[in-house]
Amino acid sequence: LNQTNYGLRGSGWVDVTRDLAVLTSFQASHLNEGVGTLSSPANAAQPTPYDLLSGDVTVRKQFNRWAASMGVGVDSYNFGVTRTADGTVIRQDSRDGQIYSVHGRAEYAFSPNAGWFASVEYNQRELRGTATQSLDSRGYRALTGLNIALTRLVTGEFGVGYVEQRFQDQTIGTIDGPGYRAVLTWRPTRLMDVSFKAEQIVTQTSDTSATGVMANAFQLGVDYELLRNVVVSVAGGYENDKFHGQLRTDKVSTVDSRIKYLPNRFGTISLFHRYTQRDSNVAGFSYDKHLVGFNATAQF
User: Fold this and answer.
1) What value does the CA radius of gyration of the chain take, rounded to a whole number of Å?
2) Distance CA 41, CA 79 (A)
3) Which end of the chain is more exposed for a tag (fewer CB within 10 A), N or C?
4) What is the rounded average pLDDT for all residues in the chain?
């Protein structure tokens, strides 16, 4: 189950005027889908490699208490092959292709401690598919809510909305439903952050597959600055996945722990452990997984 991931990411911005900026980002990476993940082929015994190229350009404008942004992005996928336990090759070419997106967001600040936002994203997915099944689709995700500071130490964002993905293949149909998002951050001391996130989305097992999932996810985490350049993080999560068109429900529990060392402002070194327990009502999809790793990051 060994895998090697590597990539290059970049971001930048240009201040055209004091209240107008252009923001850009890009990524070129070689990644892997782990065995047992939602998007990995069910009978795969090895990780599934793929290359990802992505980019985004966004224009942001401030109008006194109003702020608005509009942007476009593209993700390009190129999948390799994986194998079953007996060595049979599983090709994933059908998932190759591009995903184009247009996104916008509007914000209004009622006061320094409260504000309203609305965001919408439209996507067009043009994937290779197979001779018998198209994976092309189009859809949107819309969300509106409030940004608030409950106290000097507690801030949060709360939003509700709707998501829809309409597939060209009528046997897949349309995946849609309501969504919500709640994020809270509590800073009891200068050295500690406590965060909570709850989210419901209607999504696919991956951007390049056709299986729809109604996911409810919750996460609670703590970051503690042990020393000026040493940060310890612990997080626990729970997710309930209901599969579109299948009598399948998965319950996923995770525990993450990480210690991060910052030798200077250009890099970080970290050790991490992630435990995952997936319980499915369909035989063959339940597992326990321990992932231990070392990570070094350089930024310029």
Assistant:
1) 21
2) 12
3) C
4) 91
